Amino acid sequence: MLKVYHSQGARSLRVLWLCEEMGVPYQTAEASFFKPSDEFKAVNPLRTVPAMIDGDVKMIESVAMMIYIMAKYGPTDLEVKPNEPGYASYLQFLLFGEAGVAAYGNPLVATRFMAPDDQKQNWTAGYLKTAILKRLEFVGQCLDGKPYIAADRFTAADISVSYIVTGAKFAGIEADIPAPVRAYVDNLWQRPAFQRAAAVK
Ligand SMILES: N[C@@H](CCC(=O)N[C@@H](CS)C(=O)NCC(=O)O)C(=O)O
Questions:
Q1: For residues 144 and 28, what is the distance between their CA atoms, to the nearest angstrom?
Q2: For a disulfide at 90, which of 6, 81, 150, 158, Cβ 3.0-4.6 Å?
Q3: pLDDT of residue 33 exceeding 90
Q4: Which CATH number fits domain 87-194: 1.20.1050.10, 1.10.287.3510, 3.90.700.10, 2.170.150.70?
Q5: What tens digit of pLDDT does each residue of 117-157 get?
Q6: Domain 2-76 class, CATH top level
Q7: Strand intervals (E) in the chain
Q8: Vertex 88, ends 97 and 150: CA angle to 5°?
C-alpha cells in the first residue's frame, strides 16, 4: 500500500486528494518539519513534505507522485491523455501549480516565520507576493468563469493548481487571492474526496 508522509495543510494534500478521488488505498505517516522522525528523514533527507513510498519506490515531489499514481493505479479521468482536447493545457497547469505558483510560496513562508524582524517585509518578500498574485490573476483569466482549469472536466491539474489557496494561509496572503480563483477553489473544495483528504491529520 502507498505510504504518504503527510502533514495537514502541506502539499501531501494533493496526493491524498488524488488517492481519495481515485479510490486508491493509502496509509499516512507523520512528516513534521520541526521534529522529523528518523523514518521520515531516511525517506526524504530534504525533509520536505510530502514523501511517498510504494514498495521499493521512494518519491519526494508531490506532482510527480500524482503522475505516478495515475499511471500506475489508473486509468482515471483525472488524467488527460495526449490525444484528448485540452491535453496541453492540462499538462501546463499540472506543472504550473507547483513550479509556476506554489514554489514561490516557500521563501515567502520562510521569510514570514524565520527571518529576523527587520527583514520580514524585505524587497524579496514583496516580489514573491506580487509574483504569486500575478500568476493567480493569470489562472483567473484562464478559467474565464469555468469551473475547471483544463479539458472542461475536473482533473489532476485542478488538484495541483488549487493547493496554493491552502499554502496562502501560511504565506499570509490568503486575503489577497483574486476573487475568481477563490470561487474556483471553494467550488473544488465541495468535493467529498477533498473533504476526506483535508480531514486527515
Ligand atoms: N516541490 C515540492 C515542494 C515540497 C515542499 O516544499 N513542501 C513544503 C511543505 S508544503 C515544505 O516541506 N517546506 C519546508 C522546506 O521547504 O524546508 C513538492 O511539490 O513536493
A1: 36
A2: 150
A3: no
A4: 1.20.1050.10
A5: 999 999 999 999 999 999 999 999 999 999 999 999 999 99
A6: alpha beta
A7: 2-6, 26-30, 51-54, 57-59
A8: 60
Question: What is the pLDDT at residue 34?
Answer: 81
Domain ranges of the chain: 2-76, 87-194
Q: Give the atom of ligand 1 at the shortest distance from the alpha carbon of 63.
A: 19
Q: How do residues 64-114 score in pLDDT, each as one tens digit?
A: 999 999 999 999 999 999 999 999 999 999 999 999 999 999 999 999 999
What is the CA(84)–ligand 1 centre distance, in A?
31
Predicted local confidence at residue 163, as pLDDT? 98
Q: d(Cα 190, Cα 193) in Å, to the nearest integer?
A: 9
Grid cell locating 102:
506554489
Alpha carbon nearest to ligand 1 atom 10, residue: 10
Query: Which protein residues touch ligand 1 with a CB less than 6 Å away?
Result: 10-11, 33, 48-50, 61-63, 98, 106
Which pTM does this prediction carry?
A: 0.97
Helix (H) / strand (E) element for 142: namely: helix 123-143
**How much distance in Å is there from the Cα of 110 to the middle of ligand 1?**
11
